[in-house]
Amino acid sequence: MKHLVFVIESLDLGGAEKSLVTLLQNIDYKAYTVDLILFKKGGIFEQLVPREVIIIYNNSLQLNIVERIQYKLRKEFNSNGLHHAQLLWQIIQSNFKRENKEYDIAFAYSQGFTTYFVDQCIKASKKFAWLNTDYQKTGYEIEFDYPIYKNYDAVVAVSPEAKLTLENELNRIQQILSIKIIKDISDKIVIKQKSNEPLPIVFKTDTVNIVTVGRLSKDKGLHLAVESCEKLIDKGHSVHWYIVGEGTERDTLEELIKKKKLTKHVTLVGMTDNPYPYMKACSIYVQTSLFEGLGLTVIEAASLNKPIVCTNFPTVYGTLKDGETGLIAEMNSQSLTDKIELLINDSDLTNRLVTNLSQLENADKERTLLEFESLIH
User: Where are the transmembrane segments (predicted)?
Assistant: First the structure.
């Protein structure tokens, strides 16, 4: 049997976390033993990890007072423009000891800290580093990361666009890496089954119920949702916008909602391990992200045949065809409002999008599993 280890910071709400759990649910445990190293306990997706997986908690990521001060100072005087994960690793890497256990294959299932840890601390015959974001827009410095990435057998990007963002930075420093593409895995059958579970909130039938799923973080562009909701209300539409997720921007969003007097029209639902009943029940699914490595929630909404409006981050064009399987808006609230209004006012367009989505073949799960098997053999 081959011994595999996956490393990710936590199993809190997120696309990479959800994809990893789905992958773990589809591994053949007669052929592999699997360890999962986490640095934070209690993530919402932990309960979904198969019992065959051995979860190992590493608490070395906790900062002491001195390290917190060092991090704050480095962040304030960050002349090299390093990403916060790169700054953090410089401070705490000495806290991490090389693991005694040896593996056949190790997977750093996200960029940044996880990738640095697997490089320095994990013994494995092969190592792969996942890239599930827009490398350029997230602000990583390739001069810091390249010496680490070159120790891996390959970097695995979750989309052609994510691969390109890393290649652009490599070209700038005139270096190359082996970069493969394996899309984040989603299970259409499981999504449909979970979407049939009871909806915790009653949606009004005389209202356009809009749903957005994602972390409450700046990169998800959720201020655009609030601003767009205001514009729709001002135009006389009966709209309620449900934002499903949790994160560091909650207070900021709550203040914005109150400022625009939208407390009766925008609901921050909070965290759930099953957003699919919300997706299924909505009139329109809207994604407001400023960038995505892939955009897994858009894929999930499409698998439920929902009319979709999405901002024009590069990877969305691999998921939606504008005007045929969804509507793609510019990254501003006016464009989002215009696209949503098209669906509200044109039932023929809405029905056409839904029909086109229902006719799509979905072989993504099988393709991803085959590509993963090919990678580890």
Answer: none
Q: How many CA atoms lie within 13 A of 336 on its CB side?
A: 27
Residues 163, 248: one domain?
Answer: no
Inter-residue contact 126 to 4 (CB < 8 Å):
no
Residue 7 is inside which H or E element, if any? Answer: strand 2-7
Average pLDDT over the chain reads 91
Under 8 Å between Cβ of 60 and 96: yes
User: Which residues have C-beta within 8 Å of that of residue 338, sequence separation ≥ 6?
Assistant: 329
Q: Which phi-psi region, left, alpha or beta, contains residue 93 (left: φ > 0; alpha: ψ -120 to 50)? A: alpha
pTM: 0.82
For the chain, what's the residue count? 377
8 A C-beta contact, residue 14 and residue 41:
no
- Asked whether residue 110 falls in the same domain as residue 213, the answer is no
Distance CA 135, CA 138 (A): 6
Whether the Cβ atoms of residue 18 and residue 48 lie closer than 8 Å to each other: no
Domain count, the chain: 2
Tens digit of pLDDT for each residue in 28-61? 999 999 999 999 888 888 989 999 999 999 887 7
DSSP, res 35: E
Q: Which domain holds residue 63?
A: 2-182
* Residues 253, 123 share a domain: no
